[in-house]
Amino acid sequence: MPVTATTDAGPEDSRDQRIAQLEAENERLRKIRDALIVRVESGSAHKPEPYAVFEHSVVLAEQVRERTEALNQTMDELKGSNKALNRAREEAETTRQRLVDAIESIADGFVLFDHQHRLIQCNSRFRSYWKHSGLEVPPAGTSIAEVKARAVSSGLIIEEHVNASSEGAVFLLSNGRWVQMTERSTREGGLVVLYSDITDVKNSEMARRIKALEESERWIRVVTDHVPALIAYVGADMTVQFCNKVYEAWYGRNGESPLGKHLENVHQPELYQRLLPHVQRVLKGHSVNFEFEETNDTGETRYMLRAYVPNVDVEGQVTGFFVLIRDITDRRKTALALEQAYDNLERRVKERTAALTGLNNQLRQEISERAAVEARLRDAKMDAERANLSKTKFLAAVSHDLLQPLNAARLFTSALLEHSFGPKAEGLVRSVSTSLDDVENLLGTLVDISKLDAGVIKPDIMAFDLRDLLNNIAREFRQMAMAEGLTLDFVPSSAVVESDSQLLARILRNFLTNAIRYTGEGRILLGCRRQADHVLLQVWDTGPGIPEDKLTEIFQEFKRIRPTGSQPDKGLGLGLAIVDKISRILGHEVTVSSVEGKGSVFSVKVPIGRLQPRRPAKDGSREVSNHSGLGGTRIWVIDNDHAICQGMQTLLEGWDCQVVSAVSLDDLERQLDPAKSPVDLILADYHLDNDENGVDVVANINDRRQCPAPVVMITANYTNELKQHIRELGYVLMNKPVKPLKLRSALNHLLRG
Questions:
Q1: Do the beta carbons of residue 457 and residue 503 sit within 8 Å?
Q2: From CA 5, how far away is CA 693, in angstroms rounded?
Q3: Span 37-53, average pLDDT
Q4: This prediction's pTM
Q5: 562 with 568: CB under 8 angstroms?
Q6: Is 329 in contact with 587 (CB distance < 8 Å)?
Q7: Helix (H, G, I), strand (E, B) or coil at 126
Q8: Whole-angstrom Cα distance, residue 663 to residue 669?
Q9: Is the dihedral of CA 441, 444, 447, 453 positive or negative?
């Protein structure tokens, strides 16, 4: 490709004009000199006076001498100018060659355009992009728009990504390399374009994203492997795409994993034919619950309770279904034993009655035997109830261990969603986030039901203002409603009620979740009505409504009423069952009324309360940021789980916070001085290692500081004692798993006072 040197043509043209003028002047002087000589030589014909002729000759000679000296001086100046011109040409050539060498030495592709944005010069690296694809390099004079159009149409550029936060556009070339385009304007109005190879950076970034996804998948598997049930996910093609260890141990044939296999190859032929109608039903969008007795390859026979829940995409298509199988063999055996015992008892009573008619002693003996059998039946029933209660208490007790890795996985995926990826990687991240939401909803619902059944949750009744509770719930669900194309209207209230604020909020959230889930279009209303001695909190919707004969069934476990034509959902039918249990604990009456085709209204009646006098603020000297958002906020994160620390730091730094994370107080002291280092907020986990807890660690830090820092305490402990203790200390309490949107709202609210 020709290279055009940029030189200043103005001085050279001026010298050429000056030389031409001097040469013309020199020629004119020579003509005058020759004419004077001829005149002198021919002057004798006129016979002038000798003295006059002599005087005239002297004047002419003097003029000739002066003109000759001027001509010689001019010639000297001309020679000097020629030498200076030659030196300037040599220097310009040297400078041009150096510029060409410098451009060629650049590792990036270099292109120079003039003030009309037409190509002037480019280096060999830029030309190699075209030659590698077998294309002709654009010649000089080609416009920048034409260069780009030829690159796209010829297939040189496969993908183009433009991000407002990056310095320039990023292209994927046909040779598999990634380049970033950077533009700089020249002083004359031209344009310099650099194409930097960022393939290694892209590959490193993709490797980090893949590693994060693999870590999230590992945590999901850890959670599901510790759930005492068979869990799996089956795709629309009826192949097992995910299963936990319990499922794999039961259905694995000859030590082979069922992953990737068709259900026909996973189950025995007879069992597969029995399951097929239920599978076909769930693939049509219906949730299915049923019981089967089955035998595995080792000959072990168990009785299984199965739940099939369809997985529906945004377009309403079933992409697969979740499988939850619980072993109810012991419960079934107990029921059969009770039934058999009752049958035996009835038979024996008839035999004894017929055989011992008129025999008083034998009758008394029969009565004694009957009483003994009934006692054994009561004992068997009590054993079954204790076994069921033991399972419930176990699931409630391990909620912290189940929620800890799930909390870390949610923090990592939320942090990934804060960044800008390519379409493929971003889709994978959103799929993982959606799967985590499904797992969290499933586990959270099961744990809540278990805790309510086991009596772990005790209400913390106190008087509080409804203003903040309703405002936070409305702000949380307004975005969810907008995402579904619905309008959420909210009527604020400052009424004071007597209740447990967290449990009451859970009731309202379940009401709103159901309203958004089953309302296809229209609006949802959240508000309250004051009555004589209570407040009626209500959620109205414009959904399809509920048949009158089904109004009592919707509060049963695993019971869902889906109107004809409505879209299938991922729920388990436990939301209103949880509402019913919580309302019983709180002593609040829950009612529902509905008109088919128009909508429904769910209400909870809460007694009116009276606020206690507020305590004076501890210290109002803390400096509060005047700007909105979290940019620049200094936060210390203390958690004994490294994964939680890393996930929380990644999430908060994505919000432009300055984060220092530590697994203990000693770890924090190794990084900074807790007494003097600036901090806006401390975010601590209650459960730490070595018999430490977050309350003691934060108290130790604030005792050293002149101005105590505000605190957010995170825990999976739901006891009223801890809740009351945190409230008395003036800290903000959040339960696991922490939702990023709720955390960000709490931080904004706390930092703004």
A1: yes
A2: 73
A3: 60
A4: 0.39
A5: yes
A6: no
A7: helix
A8: 11
A9: negative
Longest dimension (CA), the chain: 199
pLDDT in tens, 326-377: 888 887 788 778 888 888 888 887 777 777 676 777 667 777 888 888 888 8
The pair of three-digit structure tokens given for residue 319, joined into one six-digit string? 């992409």
The answer to whether 470 and 522 have CB atoms below 8 angstroms apart is no
- The rounded radius of gyration (Å) of the Cα atoms in the chain is 44
Nearest of 549, 546, 488, 485 to residue 520 by alpha carbon: 485
Alpha carbon distance 609, 46 (integer Å): 144
| Band of residue 109 on the pLDDT scale cut at 50, 70, 90 | confident
The answer to whether 630 and 751 have CB atoms below 8 angstroms apart is yes
Cα separation, 732 vs 750, whole angstroms = 8
Nearest C-alpha neighbor of 534 from the set 456, 469, 587, 571: 587
Average pLDDT, the chain: 78
408 token code pair: 């870390």
> Three-state SS across 118-180?
EEEEECHHHHHHHHHCCCCCCCCCCEHHHHHHHHHHCCCEEEEECCCCCCCCEEEECCCCEEE
- CA distance between the termini of the chain: 66
- Distance, C-alpha 327 to centroid of its chain: 36
> Residue 315 contacts by C-beta under 8 Å, 6 or more apart in sequence?
none
Do residues 724 and 696 lie in contact, with contact meaning Cβ atoms separated by under 8 Å? no
Q: Are strands 301-312 and 288-295 parallel, antiparallel or unpaired?
A: antiparallel
φ, ψ at 65 (rounded to 5°): -65, -45
Tokens 């299915």 — which residue?
Answer: 288
Nearest to 208 by CA among 416, 407, 431: 416
In sequence order, which ranges of 323-463 are alpha helices (DSSP H)?
329-355, 360-397, 399-417, 423-454
Tell me the pLDDT band of 302, cut-offs 50, 70 and 90: confident
Place of tokens 């192949």: 239
What average pLDDT score do residues 585-604 get? Answer: 87
